[in-house]
Amino acid sequence: SGIAKFRRLEKREYVDTLAHAMYRSSVFDKVGLYNEKLARTEDNEMHYRMRQAGFKFLLSPDIVSYQIVRNSLVGMIKQKFNNGKWIGITIKYCPKCFSLYHFVPMLFVISLIISLILFLIGFPYFLVLIAIMYSLFNIINLISIIINNEFHFLYLLLPFCFFVLHISYGL
Question: Would residue 35 be called left, alpha or beta, if left means φ above 0 and alpha means ψ between -120 and 50 degrees?
Fold first, then answer.
């Protein structure tokens, strides 16, 4: 679920942002409340304001939270599409609250569209290059998942899931 540093750390450390974070009420007194116009990206915008005000985010492995994830691929596709949509909407309010990696799926979709057009007019090289690079990305991710977890045959479907989710998010 994403590449944010806090998702992989197992030691007490300061990070750029957190999911399921807890705050002292005095933080809101200083930076204001959540922007209620934002339905999905309110935490990105709030955390940006907190960092600008000098606050830091401490990841503590002593604190455990649970996230209920979508239980279907269709549900996850809808979630990723809406996450990407809300990043686009939030840029209007806070262009600096996202990093480049938030826009990689959109750039991926744009490069696929351009490469498909080039393919259709006789220049297949860009599409082949993107396919090779993306396949390598998926293979490396799959190997990492298999190394860090007990193997399950359904892991072999992950490259397909990654592709569908990246397209959904990028659109």
Answer: beta
Q: What is the pLDDT of residues 34-61, one digit of tens each?
A: 999 998 889 889 999 999 999 999 888 8
User: Rounded distance, CA 149 to CA 155, Å?
Assistant: 10
Distance (Å, whole) CA 149 – CA 29:
43
Do 167 and 109 form a contact (C-beta atoms < 8 A)?
A: yes
Which residue from 88, 4, 99, 111 is spatially nearest to 40, judged by alpha carbons?
Answer: 88
Question: Helix, strand, or coil here: 121?
Answer: coil
Q: Are 20 and 65 in contact (CB under 8 A)?
A: yes
Assess contact for 12 and 61: CB atoms under 8 A.
Answer: yes
Q: What Å distances lie between residue 63 and 2, 18, 55, 66, CA to CA?
A: 20, 12, 19, 10
End-to-end CA distance of the chain: 18
Which phi and psi angles does 168 have, rounded to 5°? -60, -50
d(C-alpha 89, C-alpha 48), whole Å: 16
Under a CB-based contact definition with an 8 Å cutoff, are residues 90 and 38 in contact? yes
Half-sphere exposure of 49 (CA within 13 A, CB side): 16
Q: For 23-34, how does the pLDDT look when each residue is reduced to its tens digit (9 = 90+)?
A: 999 999 999 999
